[in-house]
Amino acid sequence: MSQDKKEIIGVRTISTAFIVFALTIFKPFGLAAWQWQMYVHVLAFFLIGFSCCLITEGTLKYIVKKPRSTKRGVSYIIRRNLWFQILNTPLVALILSLYRHFVLNERVEGNQLSWGNFLETLLIIGFCSFAIGMFWRFKFRSRYLMAELEETRLLNEQLQKMQQEQSKEEEALEEKAEQGETPAAALPATITLTGTTNETVTLAIAHLLYIETVGNYVKVYYLRDGQVRNDMLRATSKQMEIDLQDYPMIVRCHRAFLVNLGQVEQIVSKTGSMQLVIKHSHEAIPVSRSNMAQVKEAIKEV
Questions:
Q1: Which helix (H) or strand (E) holds 267?
Q2: CA distances for 25 relative to 21, 49, 109, 133, 296, angstroms
Q3: Which of 15, 37, 257, 294 is the most exposed place for a label (fewest CB within 10 A)?
Q4: Counting Cβ atoms within 10 Å, is residue 164 exposed (0-12), middle (13-18) or buried (19+)?
Q5: How many Cα atoms are found within 13 Å in the side-chain-facing hemisphere of 227?
């Protein structure tokens, strides 16, 4: 058995045991009426909870396509844990509600299957799951932080490598241009961005820093004569994204920002979030959760 599988079984065993221990202490569902037989039912609760955890793990791995992995970054771990809670808590609550109806109802009439009893069970299991989740979050915090730091380090290395390769390509194109050779597949070195009115911004694509959405306008930040400048265009960021779609180094990192990865000085990570520090202006541009995977993929592929 692999170390990862052993850890899964260990974590789920401890989690289920914690919830069962809480049920034993507080005796919900009329457990006190069963006297010594209560411990038999508590054991059944443990088996139900552990089985549901394994079912949820299998569902995440094979159906939702979210296998357990610490190599995919902290944001992936957080999202996966959330998925686990969303799937597992209602499943456990449903099975326990059925157990209450068919087994515990013999001595406690209030255990009949109903929406009220299901919601009561869901609330109890949800609270216990939240408590044990906070325990594991604290316990694995150092591991998550180390994984996050390592991921950020690798992304910064890939970013620098990408920028170096891009710089070499630009130098090679300049040399060919000086010799009168222009590759047919070469993208234009300059671009003109237009708004819905008559205003335009013409700039060297390599000098574009980022584009910010401001109401019904976009603010284009770029370098000119070594200085950071910005011009307003009446346009949408979606329109700008379409105009710049042929340039893979320009990606959407947030609903309000498009950024040129070639002008990113550093990637900074915090727990579950990321920022891109822009060269020259040193502005920190946020990366939204929904765009984080796209930005990471762009850094690896550009």
A1: strand 264-270
A2: 6, 17, 21, 19, 47
A3: 37
A4: exposed
A5: 3
Distance CA 188, CA 69 (A): 42
**Residue showing tokens 């401890």:** 14
**What residues have CB less than 8 Å from 152, skipping those under 6 apart?**
267, 268, 269, 274
Round to whole Å and give the CA distance between 3 and 84. 20
Candidates 301, 260, 299, 296; CA nearest to 280 is: 260
Q: How far is the C-alpha of 163 from the C-alpha of 117, rounded, in Å?
A: 59
Phi and psi for 262 in degrees, rounded to 5?
A: -70, -15
Tens of pLDDT, residue by residue over 146-193, are 777 888 888 899 888 888 887 887 777 667 766 766 554 556 678 889
Strands 227-233 and 217-224: antiparallel
Cα separation, 202 vs 49, in Å, equals 62
Do 169 and 238 touch, CB atoms closer than 8 A?
no
pLDDT digits (tens, 9 = 90+) for 47-103: 999 999 999 999 998 998 888 776 665 667 778 888 999 999 999 999 999 999 999
| Average pLDDT of the residues in 219-238 | 91
Q: Is residue 220 a contact partner of residue 250, using CB atoms and an 8 Å limit?
A: no
- Under 8 Å CB-to-CB from 167, ≥6 apart: which residues? none
Looking at residue 186, its pLDDT comes to 56
Alpha carbons 207 and 189: distance in angstroms, whole number: 10
Question: In whole angstroms, what is the distance from residue 234 CA to residue 144 CA?
Answer: 43
In contact, 11 and 56? CB cutoff 8 Å: no
pLDDT at 70: 63
